Structures are given as structure tokens and as C-alpha cells.
Automatic annotation (TrEMBL):
A GO-annotated cellular component: transcription elongation factor complex
Gene3D superfamilies with a match to the protein in the record: E3 ubiquitin-protein ligase
Gene Ontology MF annotations: cis-regulatory region sequence-specific DNA binding
Protein name in the entry: RNA polymerase II elongation factor ELL N-terminal domain-containing protein
Record PANTHER family: OCCLUDIN AND RNA POLYMERASE II ELONGATION FACTOR ELL, RNA POLYMERASE II ELONGATION FACTOR ELL
Signal peptide coordinates: none
Domain RNA polymerase II elongation factor ELL N-terminal: 20-136
Comp. bias intervals (Polar residues): 137-153
Stored InterPro entries: E3_ELL-like, ELL/occludin, ELL_N, WH_DNA-bd_sf
Record field: compositional bias (Basic and acidic residues): 1-16, 155-165
Biological process per Gene Ontology, one example term: transcription elongation by RNA polymerase II
Length: 165
């Protein structure tokens, strides 16, 4: 075996040993970079400058929150003290309280005013919002067909299926 071949083999063995000897630090670093990649950092500053009420509305559009959870989420993007003190009043205006678990959900009529390109939304949030909005608008687009589908009359149940025209 020539010196050149032996050197190549040693380098390959070192690379293999280095890859298989990955300790907790590289693993932790890799996990952290994945989390950071999911965050749209440019949105944090843009969201901080938006009205507090709009920030609350856009968070509640994605899911229900308990008040402490919502406050913690808002603080992550930055919150002024005066805004922090007005959360209860804003929740009364824009949210319905579920008394079973003390969580707040966005009032139905406010879904129409949402911005799908809200700077605080990640790609996943935007996709989830589109799904939520499509579910909310689908039944209201054709209310007669949904009411017939849920409770067919006796003649509809017994009649043979008709081809679509």
C-alpha cells in the first residue's frame, strides 16, 4: 500500500470516527437550529409595532388560549405595560369565554377581518389559518344543501338517487 492510499484510508477512518462519535453537543445544536428555522424573526419586530388588539385577534384565530397562555405568547413578541393591562378588556371585545376550561376563542364575525399575511404567522400558521377559514366559510356558502344533507325528509330518503344535471 502506498503512502497516498494509506493517508486516504486514515482520513476516511477519522471522518467515520468523527461522525459516529457525535456527542450530545452536536445533537443539541442540530435540534436548536431546527427550532430557530421555524421562527420568522422578521415578523417579531413587525408584530410589535402592530395594535395590541390585532395581535390578540390574530393569535386567537389559530387556536383557543387561556389568558395566561395568551399573555405569555404576546410577551414573547414584546408587549408594552399599558397593553398588558388592557388584555382583559380586549378579550371581552374580541373573544368568547369557554367556561369549561376558561379558554378564549375568537368571535365568529372577526374571522372575516383577518389578514392571512399577518407578519407574526409562520408558514405553518398561514396554512392552518387557510384551513380554518375554509372550514368556517364552507357551510355558509350554501346553507340549504347542508341543512338538507343533515336531515333528509322522508321522500328524499326513499327516492332513488338522481344523476347530477
Amino acid at each position: 500500500m502506498t503512502d497516498k492510499q494509506r493517508l486516504k484510508r486514515e482520513k476516511a477512518e477519522l471522518r467515520g470516527a468523527h461522525q459516529s462519535n457525535a456527542g450530545p453537543v452536536p445533537e443539541k445544536k442540530r435540534m436548536m437550529s431546527v427550532r430557530l428555522a421555524d421562527i420568522d424573526w422578521s415578523g417579531c419586530a413587525a408584530v410589535y409595532g402592530r395594535p395590541y388588539r390585532d395581535r390578540v385577534i390574530h393569535l386567537l384565530a389559530l387556536r383557543d388560549y387561556k389568558e395566561p397562555e395568551l399573555l405569555a405568547r404576546l410577551q414573547r413578541d414584546g408587549v408594552r405595560q399599558k397593553d398588558k393591562d388592557s388584555l382583559g378588556r380586549i378579550l371581552q371585545e374580541v373573544a368568547d369565554l369557554n367556561v369549561k376550561d376558561n379558554s378564549f376563542s375568537l368571535k365568529e364575525h372577526l374571522f372575516q377581518s383577518l389578514q392571512t399575511d399577518w407578519p407574526g404567522y409562520s408558514k405553518t400558521d398561514r396554512a392552518n389559518l387557510k384551513l380554518i377559514l375554509s372550514r368556517k366559510t364552507a357551510p355558509s356558502q350554501n346553507p340549504t344543501s347542508s341543512s338538507q344533507a343533515t336531515s333528509p325528509g322522508p321522500s328524499e330518503r326513499d327516492a332513488p338517487a338522481r344523476p347530477a344535471q
